[in-house]
Amino acid sequence: MMGMGYFRSTTKGAAATSPTAGKKKAKKLAQEDAGLRESLLEPSPATPEGGGVPKGYFAVYAGEESRRFVVPTGYLREPAFRDLMERAADEFGFAQAGGLHVPCAEEDFEALLRRLHRKNAAAGGKGKKAVR
């Protein structure tokens, strides 16, 4: 069975103010970024051929080499992501064959996804995590 979401509890208290807690938090964020990057770039396990997208997600192609990302549909509610979708419609039009292409560098798109992931996680873990 595929887990499509998770909840993250925030840690508060005296331990969060120590210098070692800051290093631990930075290391944890780096690990989460690496995991998010891997999960966004991996093909979906929902289909045997790996070309499909599970319910609640959609495929986006970014960068000069059109790298494929599978992202939660909930990101469409975010103003930054909507702005990117409007730019994609202006540049490529609405009738795009073979998937949704966005006019942005791969690194910039990954940074946007990390920000949205952290924002949704900080809001109580309501958002979906990228598929592994």
Automatic annotation (TrEMBL):
<dbReference type="GO" id="GO:0009733">
    <property type="term" value="P:response to auxin"/>
</dbReference>
<dbReference type="Pfam" id="PF02519">
    <property type="entry name" value="Auxin_inducible"/>
</dbReference>
<comment type="similarity">
    <text>Belongs to the ARG7 family.</text>
</comment>
<feature type="compositionally biased region" description="Basic and acidic residues">
    <location>
        <begin position="29"/>
        <end position="40"/>
    </location>
</feature>
<dbReference type="InterPro" id="IPR003676">
    <property type="entry name" value="SAUR_fam"/>
</dbReference>
<protein>
    <submittedName>
        <fullName>Uncharacterized protein</fullName>
    </submittedName>
</protein>
<feature type="compositionally biased region" description="Polar residues">
    <location>
        <begin position="8"/>
        <end position="20"/>
    </location>
</feature>
<feature type="region of interest" description="Disordered">
    <location>
        <begin position="1"/>
        <end position="53"/>
    </location>
</feature>
